[in-house]
Automatic annotation (TrEMBL):
Organism: Dillenia turbinata
UniProt short sequence motif LXXLL motif, positions renumbered to this chain: 240-244
Region (Leucine repeat II (LRII)): 191-223
Span list, region Leucine repeat I (LRI): 37-97
The protein's name: Transcription factor GRAS
Record-linked InterPro entries: TF_GRAS (IPR005202)
Any single Pfam family the record assigns to this protein: GRAS
Length: 282
């Protein structure tokens, strides 16, 4: 007879990368604990077959996941639903034309301002980082008369408006400031440009806004229009990770070497080399 209390008995969570043969009715009858383990197994199996190109098996796994996952269910069901959606997108991206056709509607799919505000309220560390970045930029650029600041994907007025105000109050008076913002959303760029131009006018500051409606992967030095004599400042907030992989070509850019050490991501290395070649101010 076992003397171990039932509460201390650990469930069997062995993960198997095989396709379940359970029927739809038996899947739906699973207990929450078993359902969670099954979802994890199915997600791992789907990811494995999606990476190796076994699309039919990956599709079968997604069908089973759809019977167990739910965006309105418990935490593991919600998580599985979003992971399954991402895996499905990865499968469709193997046909670029099909993927673009399904994701082209001529309008912005997401209103980014509200999610950004929610994120800022839930994680105040982003606001703290803005304060620190602004202070460093103002201190570093205080003596410069012609400044070019490059925003690699943030597009947040909460970062740039305090910078305008800080530079405008410098002892030598407002400098000439140009801000180039790289962002994939035209709506974000338009809103940022309007806010910054209005703020610069109120501060009587010579200002120029250069919006680039592209992704970081498409960026080239010529697009930034960096001119001789400009003090260059470059910022990036939560965006460089997009360079670590391009669609499904992860293995070609990022992986393990023969000695099992992580290789440098070629795309990231090239991008950082480009940034360094522009000689931003230390």
């Amino acid at each position: 007879m076992s003397l171990v209390p039932p509460s201390l008995i650990k469930p069997d969570v062995t993960l198997r990368l095989t396709l379940s043969s359970a029927s739809p009715s038996s899947l739906e009858a699973l207990k929450p604990e078993d359902r969670g383990i099954t979802l994890i197994q199915l997600l791992l199996t789907t990811a494995k077959h999606a990476s190796s190109g076994n699309l039919h098996i990956a599709d079968a796994c997604l069908c089973q996941i759809s019977q167990l996952a739910s965006v309105t269910g418990d935490s593991i069901q919600r998580l599985a639903a979003h992971f399954a959606s991402a895996l499905a997108v990865r499968l469709v991206k193997r046909w670029p034309g099909l993927y673009r056709a399904l994701n082209r509607d001529g309008s912005e799919k997401l209103e980014l301002v509200r999610p950004q505000n929610i994120f800022g309220q839930a994680f105040p560390y982003l606001g703290f980082s803005y304060v620190i970045m602004t202070r460093i930029l103002v201190q570093t650029l205080a003596e410069e008369r012609v400044i070019h600041a490059i925003d690699l994907g943030s597009g947040d007025p909460k970062l740039w408006i305090p910078l305008l105000r800080g530079l405008a109050s410098s002892a030598n008076g407002p400098p000439h400031l140009k801000i180039t913002c790289v962002h994939s959303s035209k709506v974000v760029l338009d809103k940022l440009g309007t806010r910054l131009v209005k703020e610069a006018e109120s501060l009587d500051m010579a200002f120029q806004f250069n919006p680039l409606n592209i992704s970081l992967r498409e960026l080239t030095p010529d697009m930034l229009k960096v001119r001789s004599g400009e003090a260059l400042a470059i910022t990036s907030v939560l965006n460089l990770h997009s360079l670590l992989a391009e669609d499904d070509r992860v293995d070609a850019h990022f992986g393990l070497g023969k000695d099992d050490e992580v290789k440098v991501c070629k795309q990231m290395a090239q991008f950082l080399a480009m940034v360094q070649s522009m000689s931003p101010k230390d």
